[in-house]
Amino acid sequence: MQASSPSSESSPLHADQQTATDKQRAEAVWEPGPNLKRPGWLRCKISILGYALRHHFIEIAIMLLALGLLVDLVLRWDELRPPIQDQISMQMVTGMIQDFFHLLVDSPAFFEKEIMASSSSPSTWVSWWINVQSLLGVGTLLVALFVWYNHIREEWTNSLPKRMSVFFLCEGRPAIICRYVWLAGEGDLRAWGQQVASQAVNVSRLLFYPNIKADAPSFAVWIDKKICRHYVVCFDLTSDNAFLFLKEYVGKCHYQNLATGKNDVRPVKLSDLQRKIPASAFPFEWPKDTCESQNQTT
Question: Is there a domain that residue 243 lies in?
């Protein structure tokens, strides 16, 4: 009975040592998770086109039908048939390009020098206005198409899923980082960011200064390869939060990245954040003495 006493006393110590070793290993293999990339210009345009076909198919079909009827009318009605031969030659195309280039280069001379009008120029303002109406009609059509495209693009943008990254700083250094959190709407950035950070550190309330920094939302490619809108909000904690959690985790940051598919929150060294995460992912500038203070604390 006496021989078993040392082993029973050493087992809790061995368990504590094993727990500390596992914790050190977990910190050594910590990975920040994926950084969402911005989609390319062509990727956005293809997504907008797909959205337009899904939600504005009737309007697009009517527009294409009207355009087809117009082309058929032009080909059938002699008065609307353009003065073009059955086959367009390369010489004609080259001449049109040269005339257009000549117009761009020499058009300012029309306002500086007295140039005689050609015999084909309109002799009255009425005939001139009739010729200009065709150009105005084409310009009106282009403006209408541009406005319609912007309307569809705005609808597409509002329909995208929203994600938000929250950064809480203390004396210029990150204390809480919650990346790519789900966001319901743009109106609750401040309240939702505070709630997410409070849950991450298990604190009922966080005190911060009113100078909240919120960048304009950008497009990002989520882990399912779909485009989403990404919001970034940055808070500055006051010194009254020191008694909550900052003293226990000096030189560390509570880090969470939902792009990993997990909700885990881990205390991470500031030096590891700087080393493994690109600087473009942070909406702030790191203090120059961060690494030095980190080495002193460790």
Answer: yes
Tell me the residue range of the domain where 190 lies: 161-281+291-297
Which one, of 214, 234, 236, lies nearest residue 170 by Cα? 236
220 and 130 belong to one structural domain = no
- Asked whether residue 102 is domain-assigned, the answer is no
Model's pTM, two decimal places? 0.71
CA distance 137 to 171: 61
DSSP code string of 57-125: HHHHHHHHHHHHHHHHHHHH-GGG--S--SS--HHHHHHHHHHHHHHHHHTTHHHHS--PPPTTS-SSH
The torsion defined by the Cα of 76, 80, 85 and 89, in degrees rounded to 10, comes to -120
Burial 100-121 (b: 16+ CB within 10 A, else e): eeeeeeeeeeeeeeeeeeeeee
pLDDT in tens, 38-72: 999 999 999 999 999 999 999 999 989 988 888 88
